[in-house]
Write a structure and sequence with these properties.
Blueprint: E1 7-9, E2 18-20, E3 22-31, H1 38-49, H2 59-73, H3 75-85, H4 94-113, E4 121-129, H5 134-143, E5 146-153, H6 160-175, E6 182-185, H7 193-208, E7 216-222, H8 226-230, H9 235-250, E8 257-262, H10 275-284, E9 289-293, H11 302-318, E10 323-326, H12 334-348
Parallel strand pairs: 3-4, 3-5, 5-6, 7-8, 7-9, 9-10
Antiparallel strand pairs: 1-2
The protein binds the ligand C=CC1=C(C)c2cc3[nH]c(cc4nc(cc5[nH]c(cc1n2)c(C)c5CCC(=O)O)C(CCC(=O)O)=C4C)c(C)c3C=C and fe (ii) ion (FE2) (2 copies).
One fe (ii) ion is lined by residues 222, 263.
Length: 354
């Protein structure tokens, strides 16, 4: 997507010609393995779980646990989980396919909506872990003449383990640059009316397409250890706010559209209520029809397609539940693209009005 068109800056003889005048928009997401085999999975998990923003416990304790236990035991079974959701056509994970498509569609929206300013904007995408690497795509944008870059972390709710680490990685790359592009970072959008309306519209549409009416709906967000929030991470408050606004937009009480947290890792206590325990408790209490929506994920991924769509479906059915639906994320749907393009347009203001 990076265009070759650059704007050379005038330069006296004997000095380099600089390229500038363009604006880059870099969509950022978490990252994903390159393949599902043991070594690819190990490489991905090693990078991910070596991040101090993700695992905050002392390195003295974590290093042996990671290298001797986690990276020995986890790559195999997790690779098999990824196998069940893998995009076989493109031979990549769904997170990559969707993030690329979001960037391509955003470029088209900018192109079609604003023909005069569009040639000045280059849209690209990168992953915090794995590829395309943030450092490499920043370089591509700079080489394309982008002297101003908007970073767009695709996390509606801020967490140090996601948003901050993506920014850290971008600023780490900037540390090595003599001529740094000017950087803006788009804020978390957990209460943005465009996001809430998109979630509500997508949930309404998905519910209308089901052949059953759920008795309960879970709004399941990725968890973090409770200690991270106690130390000052606003993540839980952001999730609560999204949940409250979604309940209002849907006209549903919070005990009908319930807030839960998924994807626990390790032995520490994570944010509660846990999604899996809630699913089991609801099934055991006689609930027969359940739907789960995952508003914290901008794109479907392992955590939604496999953990919710397969694992939690299994828990529900094994414990007496009968009908289950995993509601798709906003992804690159028209509503999903409304959210991303709305944020990008707003955050570019002052640089360029599109
Ligand atoms: C162990 C600590 C982890 C924290 C803290 C954490 C926070 C966090 N993660 C996401 C979004 C995603 N996580 C994904 C996968 C995933 N997450 C962890 C661990 C933590 N996440 C691991 C080890 C994995 C890999 C799979 C596994 O081994 O279980 C994904 C999916 C990526 C994909 O390829 O599909 C996403 C997305 C958020 C939003 C978040 C904190 C708010
Ligand atoms: Fe995660
Ligand atoms: Fe998971």
């Amino acid at each position: 997507m990076a265009s070759d068109a650059v704007i050379p800056l005038a330069s006296s003889e004997g000095f380099p010609v600089f390229k500038g005048g363009r604006i880059g928009v870099l969509l950022l997401n978490l990252g994903t393995p390159e393949a599902t085999d043991y070594l690819s999975m190990r490489r991905y998990l090693k990078e991910f779980l070596s991040d101090r923003r993700v695992i905050e416990i002392s390195r003295l304790i974590w290093w042996p646990v990671l290298n001797l236990i986690v990276l020995t035991k986890r790559p195999g079974p997790k690779g098999r989980d990824y196998d069940t959701i893998w995009n076989k056509e493109l031979n990549e994970s769904p997170l990559k396919t969707t993030t690329r498509s979001q960037a391509e569609k955003l470029a088209r929206i900018i192109d079609e909506g604003t023909p005069e300013s569009a040639p000045l904007i280059t849209v690209d995408w990168a992953m915090r872990y794995g590829f395309p690497a943030i450092r490499d795509r920043l370089k591509v944008l700079q080489d394309a003449g982008c002297d101003r870059i908007l970073l767009v972390p695709l996390y509606p709710q801020y967490a140090a383990a996601t948003t901050a680490t993506a920014c850290d990685k971008a600023f780490e790359a900037l540390m090595a640059m003599r001529w740094q592009p000017t950087i803006r970072v788009s804020p978390p959008y957990y209460e943005d009316p465009v996001y809430i309306e998109a979630l509500a519209a997508s949930l309404r549409q998905s519910l209308a397409g089901l052949d059953f009416e759920p008795e309960k709906i879970l709004a399941s967000f990725h968890g973090v250890p409770k200690s991270y929030v106690l130390k000052g991470d606003p993540y839980r408050s952001h999730c609560e706010r999204t949940h409250t606004l979604l309940c209002e937009a849907m006209g549903m009480a919070p005990d009908k559209l319930m807030l839960t947290f998924q994807s626990r890792f390790g032995t520490e206590e994570w944010l509660r209520p846990y999604t899996d325990e809630t699913v089991i408790a609801l099934a055991k209490s006689g609930i027969k029809r359940l739907a789960i929506v995952t508003p914290g994920f901008s794109a479907d991924c392992l955590e939604t397609l496999e953990e919710i769509g397969e694992e939690n479906r299994g828990y529900f059915e094994e414990n007496g539940g009968e009908q289950f639906a995993a509601i798709p994320c906003l992804n690159d749907s028209p509503k999903g693209m409304d959210v991303i393009s709305h944020i990008v347009r707003r955050e570019l203001r002052g640089w360029i009005d599109i």
